[in-house]
Amino acid sequence: MFVETRRERVLALDVGRKRIGLAVSDAAGWGAQGLDTLQRKTLGEDLKRIAQIAKERKAAVLVVGLPLHMDGREGEMTAFVRQFGTRLGAATGLRVEFQDERLTSVTAEERLSEGGMSLGKLLDEKRKGAVDRMAAVIILEDYLRGKAE
After folding, report:
1. Among 103, 111, 25, which residue's Cα sits nearest to residue 66?
2. Is domain 10-148 annotated with CATH 3.30.420.140?
3. DSSP-derived secondary structure letter, 121
4. Beta strands in the chain (DSSP E)
């Protein structure tokens, strides 16, 4: 007997000081699709834009990549991202969860290169945006895989 389980749509973020990579799950909550990378403006504008995207995409959960040191310690950027996630949850009213993002940028560059995208030929900002978007996809895939286990 087949039993369909309803999953929540998830919006994942790779938060940096200059850009925010975004990815959203499909309606079934299994697949991940990269969205346009946001150039950071002010905190208020960033929160408003992400809230709008979450609403348009019908996201029920926000997953924010947590930049930990390789040994698992938290650093200055971890505190910055945690604070951003807390503010984002307050601004959207949505549940915010954090997902370890160690090595996602390295994996993102590898995937883009394997997919035929020559990062060396792209303008620096465009390349960084593509890496941030792919990192958000990887954060989302890791989160979804963890929920399925």
Report:
1. 103
2. yes
3. G
4. 10-15, 19-25, 32-39, 61-66, 95-100
